[in-house]
């Protein structure tokens, strides 16, 4: 069993303080084969951007990697862990390695054990396979995974495969040993509030991360109060933050500094929150029920040279009508939100052997 106490102290400290954890895409070539050079370049880009962790095998990495006929789950997870360790050693740093775990219990147990064996520190646990199951069944599933590896809970929005998880679920989930954090991505203020309130009453140290791509900065700026207990969402584990990542790190550092200063939130930062949401609408394609969310982030990274194309494992998964133009619009409208210059200055190094 891998425990929270097994995580390197400096890595755990970063996670508890709150950090940027991008949900890493899958790099493919024009034949839709795994492209390790670009997967490695993404790892280097994220580490040099200043992230505190990287999540692999999650939605952005494409769930199709788990299909037997594709067979990419093990090689992608194992090689990416090696790429992260290699560049961290080169830079003299260390970050949290998060592996996605999904499926019914037998599959999830295999994935958790495999990731623990590859050196992953924690599992982001998806419950989408339990759409029709009872709360008790889901909790028992979570306990069994947490007996293998530290768990980050995941509240996924129902529109992309999640389900409503009531306060009572999160109250019990927060009592599971080896739960290190919770990523909240219901895209719903009421549901987010249920999670925060449950953690506030748990008496346990569980670090909250936003996955609400429609409300990133506001989530990070908000203090929650329940009786005498005060909580904050400390960082973000986000698909949105897998591109323009250097600016995401700068944003989180700015917000942490502002909170530490005790000063009022400037109006400009609230305006920037909406600008970030506008960018996310272009990347994640809510106009078409998120159909273009993965090729959308591929398009952003491809324009910078960090991916060779926007190909997905599913040939039918591509940009929605008008999405490419929307990405151009937000890129040009908000030059302060992209990190093109940072990528341009370092791309050759990240792609080098």
As an assembly, this protein is single chain
- Biggest sheet: strands side by side, in what order? 1-10-7-6-5-4-3-2
What is the number of E strands?
10
Mean pLDDT: 96
Helix content: 40-55%
Give Rg in angstroms: 19 Å
Give the uncertain stretches in residue-range form: none
Shape: globular
**What is the count of DSSP helices, taking H or I runs of 4+ residues?**
13
Distance, first to last CA: 35 Å
Helix/strand order, N-terminal first: HEHEHEHEHEHEHEHEEEHHHHH
What summary fits the major beta sheet?
8 strands, parallel
Give the structural class: alpha/beta
Q: Tell me the fraction of residues in β-strands, as a range.
A: 5-15%
Describe this structure as you would to a colleague.
This protein has 353 residues and is α/β, with parallel strands linked by helices. The protein has helices at 9-17, 36-49, 73-91, 105-117, 135-146, 167-173, 189-200, 216-221, 245-261, 267-284, 293-304, 323-333, 340-351; strands at 20-22, 53-56, 96-101, 122-125, 151-156, 179-185, 207-210, 223-226, 229-232, 235-238. The chain has an 8-stranded parallel beta sheet, with helices on both faces. Strands 8-9 form a two-stranded antiparallel ribbon. The relative contact order is 0.13.
């Amino acid at each position: 069993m891998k425990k929270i106490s097994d995580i390197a102290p400096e890595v755990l400290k970063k996670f508890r303080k709150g950090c940027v954890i991008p949900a890493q895409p899958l790099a493919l070539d024009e034949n839709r084969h795994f492209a390790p050079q670009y997967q490695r370049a993404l790892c280097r880009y994220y580490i040099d951007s200043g992230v505190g962790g990287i999540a692999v095998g999650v939605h952005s990495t494409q769930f199709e990697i788990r299909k037997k006929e594709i067979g990419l789950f093990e090689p992608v997870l194992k090689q990416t862990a090696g790429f992260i360790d290699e560049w961290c050693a080169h830079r003299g740093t260390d970050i949290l390695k998060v592996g996605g775990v999904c499926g019914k219990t037998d599959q999830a147990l295999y994935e958790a054990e495999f990731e623990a064996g590859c050196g992953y520190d924690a599992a982001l646990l998806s419950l989408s396979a339990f759409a029709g199951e009872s709360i008790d069944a889901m909790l028992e599933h979570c306990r069994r995974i947490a007996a293998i590896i530290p768990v980050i809970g995941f509240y996924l929005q129902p529109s992309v495969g999640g389900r409503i998880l009531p306060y009572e679920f999160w109250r019990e989930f927060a009592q599971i040993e080896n739960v290190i954090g919770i990523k909240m991505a219901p895209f719903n203020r009421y549901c987010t509030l249920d999670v925060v309130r449950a953690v506030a009453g748990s008496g346990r140290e569980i670090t909250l991360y936003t996955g609400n791509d429609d409300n990133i900065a506001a989530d990070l700026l908000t203090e929650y109060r329940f009786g005498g207990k005060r909580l904050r969402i400390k960082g973000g584990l986000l698909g949105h933050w897998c591109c323009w990542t250097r600016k995401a790190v700068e944003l989180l550092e700015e917000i942490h500094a502002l909170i530490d200063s005790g000063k009022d939130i400037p109006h400009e930062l609230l305006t920037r929150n909406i600008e970030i949401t506008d960018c996310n609408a272009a990347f994640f394609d809510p106009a078409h029920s998120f159909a273009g969310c993965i090729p959308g982030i591929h398009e952003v990274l491809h324009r910078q040279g960090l991916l060779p194309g926007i190909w997905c494992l599913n040939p039918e998964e591509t940009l929605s009508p008008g999405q490419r133009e929307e990405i151009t619009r937000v890129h040009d409208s908000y030059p302060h939100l992209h990190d093109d210059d940072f990528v341009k200055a370092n791309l050759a190094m990240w792609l080098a052997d």
